[in-house]
Amino acid sequence: MEMSSQTRNSTPLPPSCKLSPVCRTHGVSLSSTKVPQVSEVRVQLEMHALWQQFDQLSTEMIVTKAGRRMFPTFQVKISGMDPSSEYVLVMDFIPVDDKRYRYAFHSSSWLVAGRADVAAPSRMHFHPDSPARGAQWMKQTVSFDTLKLTNNLLDDNGHMILNSMHRYQPRFHVVYVDPAPDSHLNANRNFCSFFFPETQFMAVTAYQNHRITQLKIASNPFAKGFRTTDTQDWLVVTYNSSPE
Description:
The chain is an alpha+beta fold. The protein is built from 5 helices and 17 strands.
């Protein structure tokens, strides 16, 4: 179900969602001030083992002018929603720190190269099925496979704008669509935010660590055409994470 601009305008994301503390992550409740429709929501990261493999190598995600999809794709399983209530699901990306980085090939490590560039415009990515009832969200894996990353500051396609050579933390927000006419009075209580540290990544225009390239090719079904028995070829391949 496509989410129209009229629907989005009628169910705005609370402004404080961008700065909110995490409500629950890895099943640990950190807040008891939320409405019942979100207070028991739990989120489980899918492909957790794969995310950990990438995290051990310092995950890199390609950003392009046209926009590039993430791999691994951010996917979650949700429980604890009110089946009959409607929810909007949203993602955003926040800088991990105020640093800009460079990759040192001789030591295969990331080094601080200076202060962060001017922050890119902050955006939210609404899951295209939003809004939907809790029963629908909970019956299957929720995938943000249409989300794309770009370094084009003038992007008008709704892609997430990130600075290359900066580290980011994806965040996931569950927003209860409160039908009450005075719902704005409970805006701070109608959403819950989640993050998973193992999904942090460095935004890059080209992969820096060849082991990241190898792991992406080995684990991404869209990259099977690049696979070869000669691992040396992996170091120079131009990698496409998924169809544009």
